[in-house]
Amino acid sequence: MALLTALGLMSGTSMDGIDLALIETDGAAAVRMGPSASLDYDDAERSLLRQALRDAAAMTDRAARPGVLAEAERRLTASHATLVRRFLAEQAIEPRQVAVIGFHGQTVLHRPAERLTVQIGDGAALAAATGIPVVSDLRAADVAAGGQGAPFVPAFHRALVEAGTLPGPVAVLNLGGVGNVTYVERGQDPIAFDTGPANALIDDLMLERTGRAVDADGRAALAGTVDAAALAALLDHEYFGKKPPKSLDRNEFSRSAVASLSTEDAAATLTAFTAGSVALARRWLPKEPALWVVCGGGARNPAILAALAARVPGAVTTADAVGWSAAMMEAQAFAYLAVRSLDGLPLSFPSTTGVPRPMTGGVLSRPEPAPGPTMVTA
């Protein structure tokens, strides 16, 4: 298949901003990474998105937009369009040179047991604003068919691993707001599931205690001491005993166990919780990974990396260290998945989300004057 130029856009559960990545791919084994860019949300946008999470909690209709959700969707889409136009201008790329944009949107609700997942973001509006076809709502078909809808980038992880020479099996560990792992063994379908919290609890703690949205460089955690009783209480959660496929909502876990601790000790304990949940996830893998490749925000946190190295027997490294991009992994993945969607290729598998069969998906929106969005089906 011919290589297509695609843009991927990701706004993750940490809600710190938007990542954009350009790749060239055939949607299969070939992936050539290009330039990337980011746009930080301002304080008002972060506040709006946090309120959108609260307003989405009671949703039962994924098309509904109660409370601030409609305004949040409009502003989120506008910010994505701003980043795309700025990037194209800076890179001297014409919209016609880009085959498709993979637009993840912002997850505000994820309840696969109810066959309900909601990512706000208006694909048709983004296509109109950029002049580029957009594939959005990529998780919906999987969840509607009974899948978990997450993790959703293992197909891309597999492509990266199989294109290289890393010792296997390889576990690709994405530590964004929520943690997820993809187990890749050559010649086999990937195995994937959410491991537990990643940065979400730590970020929320730091925002509440210090007004800063992250534990920069893990400084608070490295200055603190893990509270063994609090850690044991956190790890005594029913989720860790559930067999995959399984996935999490960002707000599945509570920080109540560390409420009485100092900021440093609480950060250290929540960091150990992230690493401990990854260690518990090993029981569901066919073999011990020879290598753990960490991507997402956790790859930039020395405290998390040290805690992981102390708890898993395989080597721990970062995506950057093996020639990938820790920061842009998910944005690249959604560009890759958009191309697969255009070609009707599977985005998810029984071994990754528990969907009954390999599933394609996504909603394709073309710029005017083409007709409105159409659902891509298997």
TrEMBL record:
Region (Disordered): 356-378
Gene3D superfamilies for the chain: 3.30.420.40
Entry keyword annotation includes Ribosomal protein: no
Pathway the protein acts in: Amino-sugar metabolism; 1,6-anhydro-N-acetylmuramate degradation; Cell wall biogenesis; peptidoglycan recycling
UniProt keyword annotations, A-Z: ATP-binding, Carbohydrate metabolism, Kinase, Nucleotide-binding, Transferase
InterPro entries given in the database record: Anhydro_N_Ac-Mur_kinase, ATPase_NBD
Biological role: Catalyzes the specific phosphorylation of 1,6-anhydro-N-acetylmuramic acid (anhMurNAc) with the simultaneous cleavage of the 1,6-anhydro ring, generating MurNAc-6-P. Is required for the utilization of anhMurNAc either imported from the medium or derived from its own cell wall murein, and thus plays a role in cell wall recycling.
Listed name of the protein: Anhydro-N-acetylmuramic acid kinase
Record organism: Labrys wisconsinensis
Name of the gene encoding the protein in the UniProt record: anmK
